[in-house]
Amino acid sequence: MRITNQIRRNQMLVDLERLQTDLYKAQTVLSSGREVERSSDDPIRAQRAMVLRSSLAQRGQYLENLRTGMSRLSFAESILMSIDDLLAEARADAIKVSNDPSIPAEKEAVAQSINGLLEELLSNANSRQDGAYLFGGFNTQEPPYVAIRDEETGDITQIVGNSTHMGGKIMITAADDLSVQINMNGNEMFQTGLPGDEGDMFQALIDMRDALRIENNEEAIALLENSIGLIDNSLSKIHTGMTDLGGRYNRLLSIEQSHLDMEIREEEDLGEAEDGELAEWITRFQLQTVALQQAMAVGTQVLNSSIINFMR
Amino acid sequence: MYSINTRGSTGNSLSAQLVMARDALLAHQNHMNTISHNVANVSTLGYHRQRTILGARQGNPGVNGMYGSGVGVLGIERSQVAFISNQERLDASLTGRWSTQYDSMMRVEEALNEISENGIGGALDAFWNSWEDLANDADSSALRTDVMNKAEDLGYAFASTYGNMDSQREQINVQMRGHVEGVNLIAGRIANLNQQIVSLSTSGQAPNDLLDQRELLLRDLATLVNINVEFDENGAANVYLGSEEIVHRDSNRELKWQEADDPSMGKGAGRVVWTDTKREVDISGGMIFGLQETRDKIGEILGELDSLADVIRDQVNGIHVEGIGLDGTTGNIFFRDDVSGARSLEVSNEIRENVDKIASSRVSPTGANDLAHEMFELQNATPFGNNLTINGKYQTMVSNIGSATQNAGLRLETAQAALVQTENLQQQYTGVSLDEEMSAMITAQYAFTAASKIFNAIDEMMDTVVKGLI
C-alpha cells in the first residue's frame, strides 16, 4: 500500500476527532450525570423518561389531593368530636335535673346552659374551612343552617337547613379511577329536613331546653326523658360519623403510602432511564484520556518521520 | 499516447553525443520540475501527483549495429483512477445529504425542548394538575387564575415550539435557495473548464492542473446534488442531474428557485426548477435533497402539533361548555374556538376577563368539583384511538423525532467513514508522497550531474580533436 503524507495526516485527524468526540461525551455525562440528554441520544430510553416524568407529575398531584382530603376529613372529625362533647354534656345535665327537678332556679340555669350548647352546635354545624362551609354539600358559600329566633328573648325556636345541594358529595381523585368523598353532609348528621326525623340534633336540644322551662315537674321530666332519647340517637349518629371519617382518613393514608412507594420506584426507574453509571463512565473517561494522549504521541511521531531528516 | 520527439542526434558522432548529453540534462531538469511541482502541492486539495515520463530514443543504425540516441520526455502524466473519483462523488452526495439532515433535525429536536421539563410535555402535566388543585378548593378564584395561567403556559409552549420549528424550516428554505445559486455557479465553472481542457487537449497539451480543478468542482457539485458524470472523447465532462444534462461540454443549464405559494412548506418556500423548461428538477441526493427531506419532515411534525392542539382545544371546550362558572354563568368556552392550530391555543376572552367563568362542576357553581376531575381525567382519555392519550401522542412524536435524528446521525457517520476511506484510496493512487519525491529527486540530481560530466568529457574529446588538427 502506498501511504502518502496526506493519508497519514487524514488518518491522524480522523482518529483524534473520534477520540475527542468520545471523550466529550464522557465529559458531559460526568459533569451532568445524565447519559440521555436528548431524545436522539437514545429514543427508547428518552421516551421511557418522558412517560415516567409525566407519571411522577400525576402522582405528585395525587399526593397533593390526598393531603387536601386528609386535612378536610380530620377537620370534620375534630368538629364531630366537639359536638360529641357538647351533646354528652347536655345529656349529663338533663339527667341530673330529671333526678331532682325541685329547684326552679337550677332548672333555669341548666336550660340556659343547654341553650348555650344549642348555639354552639349551630356554630359547629356552620363550620368553615378556608372560607368554605363544611356541612352544606356543594353549597359552600352560604351557611347550611339558619336559626329562627324568638323576637323577644332571641332564643332559637327552630333551625332550618338550606336544602340547595345539601347532599352534594365533594370528591378527590386519590389514584387512577379512584375517587373518595371528603365531605360529610349535614342532612346525614344534624337533621334530615324530613318530617318525623328522630335524629334531629337541633330539635333534641330545643326540646330539652323548653322542657326545663315547664313548671309542672312531672310533665317536664317526661319531655326531658324523651329529649334524652333523641340525644342518644344523635350521639350514636355522631359516633358512626366519626368512625366513617376515621375510616376514610385511614384509607387515604394507606393510598398515600402506596403512592410514596411507587414514587420512589419511579424515581429510580427515571434515574435508570437517563442517568449514566458513574463508575463505568469514570473508567471510560480515563481510558479515553489515555487513548487520546497515545494517539497524539504516535501521530506526531509518524508525521515527523521522513526521509528528509536523513538527507544531507 | 506519446510520440517520441525525433529531434536529436543521427549517428555515432561527437556532436551527436553532445546533443544526447544536452537532451539528458533537459530531460532530468524537466523531471526536477515535476518533482518540485509535486512537492509544492503536497497539501493542495484535489491535487493529483504528476510524473515526467522519460523514454529512450529510437536508435540509429550504424556500421556496428544500433547506436542509442539518448533520452526524451514522452510527456507529463497526471495519475488518476476514474472509478475512485466516481465513488468519491457518490460518497460526497451521501455525506451532504445526511449532514444537512442531521444538523437541521438537531435544531428541530432543540426546538421541542424535551426531555427537560420546560417543553410541551411539562406544560401539559402542569395544566392537567392545575384542574385538580382547583378541584381541591373548588370555590377559589386564585386557583382559577392558576388554571388560566397554566393554560396560557401550555398555549405558549405550543406556539413557541411551533414558531421555533417554523423558523427552522424558513432557514432551510434560505439554505436551499443559496445552494441552488451554488449549483449554477459550479456548473458554469465546469462548463468553462471543459472549454479550456478541450482546447488544450486538442492542441496536444496535457491540461493536468485544470483537470484537478474540474474534479474538485465536480465533487463540490455532488455534495449539493446527485450527479452523474460522463467524459467524452475530447475530455469534456458532461454532467447529468437526474436524467437531464446540466453541463454539456462548454455550456450549462441553470436551475431556478421557483417561489411556491404553499403554506405547508413554510416561509420563503420554493421548488427547484430548470430555468429553461420550468420543470421541477428531479433531486434525489446531496445537501439540497437532505434539506428538502427535512423540510417535509418538519411539515409533518407541525401538522401533528396542530392536530394535537386542536384535540386539546376541542376536548377541553367540549367539557367546559357544559359546566357552571363560579359566577353562575353557563355555556362558556375555555379556549378560543374561532381559531385553530398550535399557534393559537389561547384562553377565551370571556375567561381572560373574568376567571370566575371557569367551571369546576356541571351541577353547582360552588363546592362541587366533578367537572374539574373530568378535565384532569382527560389526560387518560384516548381521543386518537390505539390506546393513545394526549400525552402519549406527544411523547410518541418526540420519540419519533429523536429516532429520525439518531438515524440521520448514524447515516452521516457511515457516509463520512466511507468518504474518508475513498479519499484515502484516492490518496493511495494519486497523492504526493514526500519520501517518494525525495528519492526521485536524488536520482534526478545524480542523473543531471552525470549528464553534465558527459558533457564535459565530450567537450574535452572535441578539444583534443580540434587541437590535434592544428
Keywords:
A: 312 residues; mainly alpha; f41 fragment of flagellin, N-terminal domain; two-stranded antiparallel sheet; 7 helices; 6 strands; 67% helix; B: alpha+beta; four-stranded antiparallel beta sheet; two-stranded antiparallel ribbon; 10 helices; disordered N terminus
Reconstruct the topology from this structure.
The complex is a heterodimer of chains A (312) and B (470).
Chain A: H1 5-32, H2 43-99, H3 104-125, E1 128-129, E2 132-133, E3 145-149, E4 156-161, E5 171-175, E6 178-181, H4 186-189, H5 201-212, H6 217-274, H7 278-304
Antiparallel strand pairs in A: 1-2, 3-4, 5-6
Chain B: H1 14-40, E1 50-56, E2 60-62, E3 65-67, E4 71-78, H2 82-112, H3 120-136, H4 141-202, H5 208-224, E5 227-231, E6 237-241, E7 244-248, E8 251-252, E9 255-259, E10 270-274, H6 286-320, E11 324-325, H7 349-353, E12 359-361, H8 370-377, H9 390-430, H10 434-469
Antiparallel strand pairs in B: 1-4, 2-3, 5-6, 6-7, 7-8, 9-10, 11-12
